[in-house]
Design a protein that fits this description.
With 148 residues, the chain is mostly beta strands. The protein is built from 2 helices and 19 strands.
């Protein structure tokens, strides 16, 4: 069912109940990724999720923004400022994480529960808080590493 709904859906992708999205056709999710209950993606722009990414319950990926000046918000048809979200491989998002428009998240990133990601996050980093800030560096990500 998911294959016709999203732009791309990889193998072994599992999405729990009460998932919501704006369109679906702007979403690409790679292999072995998981979204827990009540996740939401507002995909007015492209959302790309890499391999083996895990999302805790109630995570939100939001590509739509709006002007801060009130006069510019008056026209509902032209006031949306849409920016893509890109997420690398091997990322883990705790419960209730919010990722805002235009953010790129590298490989091997952990985002603590309740964090609001407003800026790009480099690979191999733990971030948390509102706004999310780096807290720790992780071992470097090695693509296609074989487990022993």
């Amino acid at each position: 069912m998911l294959k016709g709904f999203f732009k791309h859906i990889g193998k072994n992708v599992f999405i729990e109940t009460n998932f919501k999205c704006e369109y679906g056709y702007n979403i690409s999710i790679d292999d072995d990724s998981f979204m827990n209950a009540d996740c939401m993606i507002l995909d007015n722009a492209e959302v790309t999720i890499g391999k083996n990414c895990w999302f805790g319950p109630r995570c939100e990926l939001i590509t739509a923004g709006h002007p801060i000046q009130y006069r510019e918000r008056r026209n509902m048809n032209t006031c949306s400022i849409d920016k893509p979200i890109r997420i690398g491989n091997e990322c883990w998002f705790g419960a209730s994480v919010i990722v805002l428009p235009g953010v790129t998240i590298g490989n091997n990133v952990v985002v603590g529960a309740g964090s609001v990601v407003t800026k790009d996050v480099p690979s191999n980093t733990v971030v948390c808080g509102n706004p999310a800030r780096p807290k720790k560096q992780l071992d470097p990500y090695v693509e296609d590493e074989v487990e022993e």
